[in-house]
Specification:
The chain is of the alpha/beta class. It has 2 domains: about 160 residues, 3-Layer(aba) Sandwich (Rossmann fold); about 80 residues, 2-Layer Sandwich (Alpha-Beta Plaits). It contains 9 helices and 14 strands. The strands form 3 sheets. It has a 6-stranded mixed β-sheet, sandwiched between helices. The chain has a 4-stranded antiparallel β-sheet with strand order 2-1-4-5, covered by helices on one side. A 4-stranded antiparallel β-sheet has the order 12-13-11-14, with helices on one face.
């Protein structure tokens, strides 16, 4: 669906992006990750043709991205922007018309979205009367109203309470099921875990890693297990199967995090532990994207 090939962007002597290549496939959620100032927003602006790359190119549906193709994109920028003095309904219709909907289509679609998001009563209110979260609901609706085949969301959950975060997540997953390609730029690692099929991590203008989320977990995540056990003392055994990362009091028990050595299995670890402690539970820990993010950025 979308391919950025060796994209570099310079502002004078400063490189905002340095030879970055990514691919976002149809019907998948692509997470664009990185610390503040890494170059994520610059890449998003290049995809949207708000700015052009110094080197490299953007390919959309097999063709060089053009101004006409941008009409197929839904873009929710991190910087929110609605006209404060306009009424919500008038502004939503205006933005829908810019995306090619007729007046009748805009009214019909907006009415359905406003009911779905529980904001029907806001139609005649001015934008300046809305809270940040309320205004963001309106902006999300106007971003997806024209059913874009490529949806770019920059920090879409900022300002939302948990109920509305789940509402937006459900809509993202629904649009994915309908075949939309979604690029999600966020610092919310929980959302990455829940939504993203693939990710790219950019740091200091360079691409650090990209690929399917599961493969990146497997390659860069730590192989750890959690053991809950009864004992008045921490696990004291030396082992060729694991090293102890953490051992602490946990409610009325103790909790140990073990870094498993390469080639070691659960049966070997349990056999060794059962001789010294009374085990209550044992489970493998799935590597968290938050830990992998911190690890890779720190290493670079």
């Amino acid at each position: 669906m979308l391919e950025c090939r060796s994209v570099t962007k310079k502002f004078g002597d400063f490189k905002a992006l340095d030879n970055v290549s990514i691919e976002a496939e149809k019907g998948r959620v692509f997470g664009l990750l990185g610390p503040n100032g890494a170059g994520k927003t610059t890449l998003i602006r290049i995809i949207n043709r708000i700015t052009i790359p110094t080197e490299g190119e953007v390919i959309y549906k097999g063709r060089l991205m053009s101004g006409e193709m941008v009409r197929e994109i839904g873009y929710l920028p991190e910087e929110r922007g609605l006209y404060k003095k306009m009424k919500v309904g008038e502004q939503a219709i205006y933005l829908a018309r810019l995306k090619g909907l007729s007046m009748a289509e805009a009214r019909k679609e907006l009415k359905e979205w406003f009911v779905k998001f529980g904001i029907r009563s806001w139609w005649d209110k001015k934008v300046e009367e809305l809270s940040k979260g309320m205004a963001q609901k309106v902006q999300f609706i106007t971003t997806v109203l024209h059913k874009p085949s490529l949806l770019i969301l920059d920090e879409p959950f900022a300002g939302f309470d948990p109920v509305n975060v789940q509402l937006i997540r459900n809509e993202i997953l629904r649009m994915k099921e309908e075949g939309a390609t979604i690029i999600l730029s966020t610092h919310n690692m929980e959302s990455v875990e829940e939504l993203c099929d693939d990710i790219a991590l950019i740091n200091r203008a360079k691409l650090v890693v990209t690929g399917p989320t599961g493969q990146i977990r497997e390659k860069y995540g730590s192989n750890q297990v959690e053991v809950l056990y009864r004992s008045s003392q921490p696990i004291a055994t030396w082992s060729k199967y694991f090293t102890i990362s953490k051992d602490e009091e946990y409610k009325h028990l103790r909790r140990a995090i073990l870094d498993v050595n390469e080639g070691a299995g659960s049966q070997q670890i349990l056999s060794e532990l059962l001789g010294s402690v009374d085990i209550v539970s044992y489970r493998e820990l799935v590597p968290r994207m938050n830990d992998i993010f911190i690890k890779l950025v720190s290493e670079k």
